[in-house]
Amino acid sequence: xxxxxIEVVNLTKRYSGHLAVANESFTVERGQVVGLLGPNGAGxxxxxxxxxxxxxxxSGTVRVAGYDVFTQADEVRRRIGxxxxxxxxxxxxxxxxxxxxxxxxxxxxVSASHQRxxxxxxxxxxxxxxxRIIGQLSKGFRQRVGLAxxxxxxxxxxxxxxxxxxxxxxxLRNVRQLIKDLGRKHTILxxxxxxxxxxxxxxxxxxxxxxxxxxxxxxxxxHRKIFQRSPVVTELSAATNDLQExxxxxxxxxxxxxxxxxxxxxxxxxxxxxxxxxxxQICQWACEQRWPMRELTHGRHTLEDVFVKITRTEKEE
Length: 317
Ligand code: ADP
Ligand code: MG
Hints:
Blueprint: E1 6-15, E2 18-28, E3 33-37, H1 44-51, E4 59-64, E5 67-68, H2 73-79, E6 80-83, H3 95-105, H4 110-123, H5 139-151, E7 157-161, H6 169-183, E8 187-192, H7 195-201, E9 204-209, E10 212-218, H8 219-228, E11 232-237, H9 240-248, E12 253-260, E13 265-272, H10 279-289, E14 293-298, H11 303-316
Parallel strand pairs: 3-8, 3-9, 6-7, 7-8
Antiparallel strand pairs: 1-2, 1-4, 4-5, 9-10, 11-13, 11-14, 12-13
This protein binds adenosine-5'-diphosphate and magnesium ion (MG).
Adenosine-5'-diphosphate binds near residues 38 and 46.
């Protein structure tokens, strides 16, 4: 069996006394698309920089494709395509010229770089802007130039630090689709502080908070864990008293909070006992009671909610 794509054991990074990564270990298997999810300052960029041989760790071992990032950095660099935070590019160069320059810098010969640049421009839909000056392109295009740069030497592992930050919704969709397509052939580790980003693109997630990994799971499992305990929100047209009395007597309902919104409409926020799925039940109740309904959904979660839930779940297990 092949060794894992990334193997991090007891990794610690201190910046002049400040502990940015606290003795953490994790593995990324070949073919996975892993999201490193955490708020600003969690230590995401620090970990990605260490993996890409741009920063030395304070202690611990890090291996990429079986090679040590400290003692075998050349072997590691050959296998990694890294897009740093803020995607630094030479803004005064033209797209094709820049990518060829980068390909040559990464050790590709003249004809190989020619071929690869054409291929990655095609892959990242850059062919039509190949002669444009990078600084004059939109943020979405620039982001794709950054991705093309990361891909040009055909690396096994792609590391992307906040690849969709600052994109408008259209550009976001394009770049996410591109990442998904790349995930079919490459192993990807990307960082983000946005939960839906992980759900949209990643097969696995590592949740990082203050330099510690709080959870490591398949995205589907994480989704289940989060939503199992999340409140259900419904908007019903009925008297507050009727709603209160009814829901208070349902054994499935643990808590119920009702606020008036407009006209006769009430917003009811409920949690269920033992993580039961309440929504079909609520639908049925509304029909039986003849309460008009105009909304039925899960409450939204911020990243902070997720951390609270995850830490609680992990402790209980
Ligand atoms: P993230 O990418 O998740 O926002 P970082 O890895 O950039 O987090 O930073 C993790 C922590 O380390 C933060 O508290 C940050 O202020 C600190 N830090 C990052 N780089 C340096 C540095 N060069 N010197 C000192 N502290 C740093
Ligand atoms: Mg960062």
